[in-house]
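Re: the multi-chain job from yesterday

Posting the exact lines I submitted so nobody has to dig through the queue logs.
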Amino acid sequence: DPKIIQKPKYLVAVTGSEKILICEQYLGHNAMYWYRQSAKKPLEFMFSYSYQKLMDNQTASSRFQPQSSKKNHLDLQITALKPDDSATYFCASSQDQDWGDAEQFFGPGTRLTVL
Amino acid sequence: GDSVTQTEGQVALSEEDFLTIHCNYSASGYPTLFWYVQYPGEGPQLLFRASRDKEKGSSRGFEATYDKGTTSFHLRKASVQESDSAVYYCALKSGNYKYVFGAGTRLKVIA
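And the result, structure tokens for all chains:
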């Protein structure tokens, strides 16, 4: 059974539109993350959450907004989409980072194409 | 800020060749270092990690030794197989809630 679910697997959007990328993890983890992978930046850290609180934000644009409705959910809302936003977006999770050096588990990704 | 540098962008080898992928990092203190592997269509998955100077991490025949003196964590495997073809990422834990990844090295092993 998949432990981290990302929906949809593929997504095509038009410039200027808004989309939400879904992420659910069933590993019992408290920390969740978003990464972006494109040809320009192979694996780029975007956000981290712990116990549904934002811990780190490396995304300059406010068009990217994480949303955590439950401890095991961290969705990513992207507004005013641009062609440069085309990438594969990975969700990841781990045990809370205050102790130890927990391994991150990655989901299968959502491949976003903005036309 | 903290950073990870992988020297090789792509590596092409024949089966049973020896593999080295170089990883150097820049960070204060003793960050935990990781190697991840990513197969086509999947997310990265952990190969192994190391947290202390001279600690060796290993998995599936791959290994790397944490070297604080040279700030390196080079990935090695004595005899690669075609099934090892993938993208390999070196990473470090930067603070409590952030990981920094290198640019990745695409390994292609020819049978």
